Amino acid sequence: MSATSPVIAQRAPYQVKLEAGKSYWWCACGRSKSQPFCDGSHKGSGFTPMEYKATADGDAWFCGCKHSAHKPMCDGTHKTV
Fold first, then answer.
1. 78, 64 contact by CB (below 8 A)
2. What is the pLDDT of residues 32-73, one digit of tens each?
3. Which parts of 9-49 are beta strand (E)?
4. C-alpha 25, offset from chain centre
């Protein structure tokens, strides 16, 4: 199983409550059943998850379409894919 472009998990961002100092592993392939985070579904796909370390508590919007230019955060690209 190999892909050149990720699966679009959803055409909207995922709102997540972050905890300062915690690492979050964002799903880059779009196959995870635990969106927006990795569950290991990328194995064999050529994609790897991306670590995001929260610097502060609060809400953040992780990319759901997997095409953001500012991965792992949403930049609005989902409106055009």
1. yes
2. 999 999 999 999 999 999 999 999 999 999 999 999 999 999
3. 14-18, 23-26
4. 8
Question: Which residue carries 């953001």 as its tokens?
Answer: 68
Residue 48 vs residues 19, 33, 57: alpha-carbon distances, Å = 23, 15, 25
Between the alpha carbon of residue 6 and those of residues 17, 31, 48, 69, the distances in Å are 24, 8, 11, 13
Distance separating alpha carbons of residues 9 and 35, to the nearest angstrom: 7
Name the nearest CA neighbour of 10 among 34, 35, 27.
35
pLDDT category at 3 given cuts 50, 70, 90 is low
Residue whose entry in the numeric block shows the structure tokens 């995922």: 14
Q: Please give the Cα distance from 32 to 71 (Å, whole number).
A: 16
Q: Is 17 helix (H, G, I), strand (E, B) or coil?
A: strand
Q: Which helix (H) or strand (E) holds 59?
A: strand 58-62
